[in-house]
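Standup notes
- DV: blocked on the single-chain target, sequence here:
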Amino acid sequence: MDLQNSYFEIYGDNDITKYRYNQLISIMDKAKKNRKASLKKEDAKGNSWYRSEKMVGIMLYIDRFSNNLFEFEKRIDYLTELGITYVHFMPLLKSREGNNDGGYAVSDYLIVEDKYGTMEQLEHVIGLLKKKGIRTCIDFVLNHTAKEHVWAKKCLEGDPDYNDMYIMYDTDEIPNKYEETLTQIFPGVAPGNFTYYPELGKYVMTRFYEFQWDLNYRNPQVFNKIVEVLLTLANKGIDIFRLDAIPYMWKQIGTSSMNLSNVHKLIAMMYEIVQQVCPSVIFLGEAIVQPFEIVKYFGTRDRKECNVMYNASLMVLLWNSLASRDVRLMYKSLSKDYGIPDDGLWINYVRCHDDIGWGFETDILRSLGCDPEQHKQFMIQFMEGKFPGSFSIGELYEFNPVTKDARNSGTLASMCGLEQAINERHIYKLELAVKRILLLHSIIISYTGIPLIYSGDEIGQLNDWSYKTIKENASDSRWLHRGKMNWEDAENRNDLATTQGQIFKRLQHMIEIRKSNVYFSSDYKSIPVDTGNKSVFCFHKEDKMLVLANFSEHEQWVDSRAFDWFGLPGEMKDLITGRQIRSYNNNILLGPYEYLWLV
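- DV (later): unblocked, structure below
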């Protein structure tokens, strides 16, 4: 893409735009000059590294995982032992005091939160990780800053260089026009999209929380400032930027102010700038919207935006299949072609730091004879543990007492039944819970894309109910699954007589297989197969590998004629166990929650 043309297309051809564009070029030139030789050596190789089968990620909170960046150094070997090749540090940049939306209310992009350490220590840790072959990802909040950010302070002080950095008005006339079409992100805890500040005499756009002021990207200075921060952080050695809340960046009266075309232009310009200054860096986009909207953030051949996006749909479909013992919704949904570009890639995950919302393809649900609203209620109740026969223990998030709508919180292990099994001292339920945990991971590790493990899931960490005793966290059930890493339990990771050992060692084994087999690279697309058995999910990697997964606690027979082109009835080898698999009378037997990686 032509950066200059795109810049002037958004901001107009005028003297101010010319001044700001020249300023942008100066920012880029300075960043190029300051980039270390070691990073330029990485740049020369480009950024195709993210498509390798060796990519396996973990996401973690520094304070939850290791207290701070200094102690984190001692835990790097643990990550290499598991097989991790990229670490996503949850928000670690300076955020406001008190409620800060889990660190997403950034008050300074260039300072590390005091309790974690310093920017110098972060840079040191990044260097240590690189020596171990581990890349680094951080959160980069694009839509808003904390109201305490220096840009906000300078804006309020009347500094002309920071004028109109945020969206604010003297009267409620324009805010009211916006409110006619804007949705509310947190209607229960943060209703409305504007906050009136009597001391300022201003209505400020605050789409997320009152303390997070939306940036005004109609002002080219905002774009320039964000790019300057981005390049400064990239020069610290960061490989992956998780671009937070990107659908909301551009606002337009009369619209939902989500997924607007100028958002895509802004991201594409940022990507082009990175290609010119630090081309080994990639973008991970966070856009929790409908699948047909998510894929647009990959960009096009001529206007690239994000290299990887979160596969939120797969995560939701995995939990749905587990709860219902029915994979048909997953099969039909994943069989849809949304037009993902060849170099676009999913981050596949089972659990993350956030709640789970139950957004399904309603037309597919109806085709399966399900009422979408009733099915959503089934999932909400099942994952909370209130549906008869549920194995899950979780909590509701953002519950609406009128509509009964809600999202769910809880750790992967607790929602897979491990907490219930331990509470009941039920050995067989415990065995099934471990099988569920491994089954879900078997899909994200084998499916095309980059598997991302949530810290603690590799040892089956349970819900942290102590969050209710912490004043600033007690009203947010998401802290249920954000507990501190239990290093005492982690000491059991090599003991197969413990649940921690069973989970860790088998995950480790799957990761080893993935990293040593080219079929797991992103060059091989995953193609779902209908087995005719609603409890068994199947996909193949362009005829090179076949995956079978039983989402039921009961044995399941699969008619192998559904995939007879795979070389049957001859023997197939399971990569995980090494055993030979044959079909008997055109049938293959899968045990409870069994998964096979067949070649």
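- Follow-up: The two ends are 42 Å apart (CA to CA).
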